[in-house]
């Protein structure tokens, strides 16, 4: 339940540094590469089922996705506001969305990872509301993926009935069996089962291929990945080579400057820092950004 809500955000200018190889990590295929025919396995072909069935036409692919309808009262209890009129905070996510789209289009970025230094800073809340804000722009196609494989939360927050994401990432289940379309232009890739060995899963070439095929099939303008915290495990390090940029969520009540610096060092040379969202901001001077849930 949202009680006291303040969010500020600041998209920082960063170098468009390309991800560079990290010593000791396996070499990935180029993220959008397609396996040569001879190498195509059953799983590989399972992944490409929707793309093949729709002739590579993203319009047909989006239309063919199973849809999901939200219980607005229930999602609001989890702090998600799909429509602009649902809560004043949507205005702030709309501003963040527009700033991000401008920065991303200049650099041709599509894949954005949302992380924070430590647990509970509001990553999932920000990733989900940002995806909903993107969804309010009819011209933008967005895919929200729950890659917090240890503690998947988004399915619960959206009230979505989905299976284990692990089966889609490995190619055991086809993409179309898992992805749900919300409205016309937001696709949700959620998860109902924690994955043991999450970093290994994020590092695996199979996951890289699944994400590449998902992107090729739906050709979204934006992919948002909800991730675990950046400090304390190697999950975020594992996925950084596969994303264009990182949106860092800081908790205004406890994230320190050292935390932000540590995350920034981690991202440097591997991806780019798109910006920092200050969640639970408590600076009253920032009143113009402040929002509170109206209570009856
Ligand atoms: N601005 C806010 N105002 C009120 N409650 C908030 C705010 N941001 C987050 N919360 C609440 O704090 C809790 C943690 O938020 P959330 O799950 O988004 O964090 P997280 O960083 O994704 O956590 P984890 O590291 O466990 O994945 C949730 O109950 C969420 O509703
Ligand atoms: Mg989370």
From TrEMBL:
The keyword ATP-binding applies. The keyword Nucleotide-binding applies. CDD domains: BY-kinase (cd05387). Gene3D superfamilies: P-loop containing nucleotide triphosphate hydrolases (3.40.50.300). Transmembrane segments: none annotated. GO terms for molecular function: ATP binding; protein tyrosine kinase activity. One of its GO terms (cellular component) is plasma membrane. InterPro entries: Bact_polysacc_biosynth/exp, P-loop_NTPase, Wzc-like_C, YlxH/NBP35. Pfam families: ParA. It comes from the Bacteria. This is Chromosome partitioning protein. The lineage of its organism: Bacteria, Pseudomonadati, Pseudomonadota, Alphaproteobacteria, Rhodobacterales.
């Amino acid at each position: 339940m949202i009680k006291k809500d303040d969010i500020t955000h600041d998209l920082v200018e960063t170098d468009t540094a390309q991800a560079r190889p990290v010593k000791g990590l396996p070499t990935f295929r180029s993220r959008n590469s397609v396996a040569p025919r001879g190498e195509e396995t059953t799983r590989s072909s399972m992944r490409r089922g929707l793309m093949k069935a729709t002739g590579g036409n993203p319009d047909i692919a989006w239309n063919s996705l199973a849809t999901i309808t939200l219980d607005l009262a229930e999602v609001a209890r989890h702090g998600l506001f799909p429509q602009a009129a649902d809560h004043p905070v949507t205005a702030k996510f709309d501003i963040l969305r527009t700033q991000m789209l401008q920065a991303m289009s200049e650099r041709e970025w599509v894949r954005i990872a949302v992380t924070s230094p430590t647990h509970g800073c509001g990553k999932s809340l920000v990733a989900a509301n940002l995806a909903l804000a993107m969804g309010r722009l009819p011209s933008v196609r967005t895919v929200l993926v729950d890659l917090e494989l240890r503690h998947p939360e988004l399915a619960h927050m959206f009230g979505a009935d989905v299976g284990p994401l692990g089966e889609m990432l490995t190619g055991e289940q086809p993409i179309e069996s898992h992805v749900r379309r919300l409205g016309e232009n937001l696709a949700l890739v959620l998860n109902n089962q924690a994955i043991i060995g999450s970093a290994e899963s994020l590092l695996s070439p199979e996951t890289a291929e699944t994400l590449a095929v998902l992107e090729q099939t739906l050709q979204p303008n934006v992919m948002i990945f909800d991730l675990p915290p950046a400090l304390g495990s190697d999950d975020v390090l594992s996925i950084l080579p596969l994303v264009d940029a990182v949106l860092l969520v800081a908790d205004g009540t406890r994230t320190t400057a050292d935390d932000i610096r540590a995350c920034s060092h981690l991202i440097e040379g591997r991806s780019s820092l798109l910006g920092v969202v200050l969640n639970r901001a408590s600076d009253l001077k920032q009143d113009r950004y402040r929002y509170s849930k109206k209570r009856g």
